[in-house]
Amino acid sequence: MVEITTVRLAPTVKSTQTGPLVAAEISEAEEFWVKQVHREHFDFEITHLNRGQQIPAASRIWSLAPYLQEGLLCVKGRLEQSELTQEEKHPILLPRSKYTDLLILHEHNRGFHLSVIATLSRLRERFWIPKGRQSVKSVLKSCLVCCKYSAKPARQQTGQLPQDRVVACTPFTTVGTYFTGAITVKTTGGALQKVYIVLFTCAVTRAVHLEVVSDMSVKNFIMSLRRVLARRGCVKVFYSDNAKTF
Q: Boundaries of each Integrase zinc-binding domain copy (predicted)?
């Protein structure tokens, strides 16, 4: 919106250059919109200040001790003795408006979707928004990216276990298998060799049987399976991830 104002809308902005916008043009367009917001929301207070009069105590911004600086309504604050910059000591007053909402969203996106506190902190380097935390929190609720990543997962009831997992039977009657590794072992001659582990687990008792094989070939898996059957007995149900070896 500020960039469009720089080229098309603001009568006070006179661009003498062609090509990309420069910082001075964008700053002047931003000042134009801030003054528009001030006229819309604080015309009564600005009129009194232009006449050299005090703002009535009934005004909603009286406690902020506002004053005019180059046509902008700024807040005096209590940081005059600090070493902050002039903008940080006396930020520009901004009421809740459509422009303020767009400014909040701009700072939020410019900081790669900052939190409420971080977004408000960046805004307060130049602007003072009454009830700023509430305003920022309200605007960030409309950020689709933040809504997506902060969404709570759907709740669902735990499903029933299959019959093979809950019916009592002899260990290793129902078995699941998977390859793990690779790991490096030292052979008898002292050389290092890469090997794999075939994991066999009982679906009912959760007992585990491990077999070491030199590679993930079908031949070595069949040999490890024969050793399991010879030691644990016959398997009735076999689960795997349908890899080529299995």
A: 100-150
**Runs of H (alpha helix) within 42-115:** 43-50, 86-89, 98-110
Domains of the chain, CATH where assigned: 30-148 (1.10.340.70), 166-240 (3.30.420.10)
Pairing relationship of beta strands 192-202 and 208-213 according to DSSP bridges: antiparallel
176 touches 201 (CB < 8 A): yes
Could you give the C-alpha distances from 100 to 22, 136, 150, in angstroms and in order? 23, 9, 24
Question: Please, which residues bridge with residue 72 across strands?
Answer: 69
- Which residues in the chain come in under a pLDDT of 50? 8-11, 13, 15
* Model confidence, pTM: 0.58
Q: Between helices 132-140 and 98-110, what is the axis angle to 10°?
A: 70
Nearest alpha-carbon partner for 233 in 154, 190, 184, 169: 169
- Helices and strands, number each (H, E), in the chain: 10, 8
Residues 241 and 178 sit within 8 Å (Cβ to Cβ): yes
C-alpha distances (whole Å) from 222 to each of 218, 225, 246 are: 6, 5, 9
Residue pair 116/136 in contact by the 8 Å Cβ criterion: yes
Is residue 182 reached through a cis peptide bond, with omega within 30 degrees of 0 on the bond before it? yes
pLDDT score recorded for residue 182: 83
